[in-house]
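Expect chain and fold; see below:
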Amino acid sequence: MEKLDGQSMKILARIRAIFVAIEFSITVLITVVFMYIFSKNTRPVRRFWAKLQTYLIGFKIHTKGELCEKTTLLVMNHQSLLDIVTLEAIHPKDLCWVAKKEIGDIPLFGHILKAPKMIAIDRNDKRSIVKLIKVGQERLHEGRVLAMFPEGTRGRGNTLLKFQSGAKIVAEKLNLIVQPAVIVGTRNVLDSQNLLANGGDVHVIFLDPINPHEDEQWYEKMHDAMSKTLQEHTSS
């Protein structure tokens, strides 16, 4: 079989991405309906949807390191929409994602945050950190694990952006046990910004959990450790 050139590969990746966008939109809306039906326990619905995406989009998840049972805040680097899908597919507990308010404001699709009681914050409102601490405490009492992207926005995939202060404040105020995770490959599998989808492998590396009260420089050291891990796995 004749090998496809770069332009042909890009066209196929674009076609595949269009298919993913259509199926993603349809399955999200169906998932929202089922989450309202099973509002007392949305976790199984989200896990089924996430695992379905691995099949429909065509990617495999590989993990390294151990998940800590005592973790109450999971922090990750952010590259793609698939970051959330990946963790929803593999994490054993009911994650409560902290997301920007704009997602919750999207007609119909915003219910992907409202139905499972995720936390939507307005990054332009200084009072949002107060809401995050208050609602975060409520979700923790429900037995959930908070999940945040401390970069605050998507990176390019091979480097780690500067961390925003929200995760640090929440962890210290609520006495959380923080576990960092480094995600590699989701941007290559699905680049939603450039509308390209290729399938492939996604790797999640769980680093050692951190107790913020044991080291005043924990946040900076965590950034360094995650950055080093990301560079090691993207350069190999």
The first strand starts at residue 59 and ends at 64. The beta strands are 59-64, 73-76, 95-100, 119-121, 145-148, 178-184, 190-191, 196-197, 200-206. The first helix runs from residue 6 to 37.
